Amino acid sequence: MINDELPIPKYAQIAEHLRAKVEELTKEGKDKFLSDDELIKMFEVSRMTIRQAVQLLVKEGLLKRIQGKGTFIVRKDKLQTDIAKLDTFFQGWYLEKSFHVKLLSRGPVPCPEGVDAKLGVEPGEEVYQVKRLRLSEGIPVVIDNRYLLKKYGEQITDEEYVHYSFSHLFFNKFNMSLTEGEIEIEAVLASEEVSEILGISAGSPILYRSVDLRAKKCCVLTGTSSYRGDMYKYKSVLRLE
Description:
Helix 1 crosses helix 3. Strand 5 and strand 6 (139-148) form a beta hairpin. The chain has helices spanning 10-27, 36-43, 47-59, 86-95, 115-119, 150-153, 158-163, 166-174, 192-198, and strands spanning 63-66, 70-73, 79-82, 99-110, 126-136, 139-148, 180-189, 205-215, 218-228, 232-235. The protein is α+β, with helices and mostly antiparallel strands. The model has no long low-confidence stretch (mean pLDDT 85). The protein is elongated. It folds into two domains: 10-73, Winged helix-like DNA-binding domain superfamily/Winged helix DNA-binding domain (Arc Repressor Mutant, subunit A), CATH 1.10.10; 79-235, Chorismate lyase (3-Layer(aba) Sandwich), CATH 3.40.1410.10.
């Protein structure tokens, strides 16, 4: 199971196997996870290595340790967004009481290639970048990276970025309603930066979503979101007209 020739630490390799074991036991309806002694015997490594691997899954919110009782699987339904409804998609997440939002960074940056055409600015012109982290019950779930025109971004305060959706902010500060949007979702592997922020292993699967939001047919907001694949899902209702 463990490949000593790989540059990946042993505990990280073991953690990958443990994630699969968590999924397997979850499907079987079990709550109790394997003991450290069982894992030491299974992987033939030191107790310290096993503790490092298990602690990584504890940090990811997949396992929990209860002193004197053992290690248990954290049972939690995936958070979800209904992508068929604009009002839910634009505003729903900040109304969820389970979400806590942390502002990672904000400020003017040279417009990245591809974003300039969407926002209608010149290549290299300054736009406003906002990065926010969404947490559920203290666990990092989503990284939002957004670009908007500098004249809008610099008028929004730190407190407003933390407590309100862009839909709310555009409507209440600039009298603009976000009326339509376009999204793309794909499965990718987490980069080192994303994995560090979300508390997962580099290369773990995540949901990567790009979004363009418009007001009066003009794109006023664009960017991406990186979701932990083990904690988030999308749904949509299909109807035959």
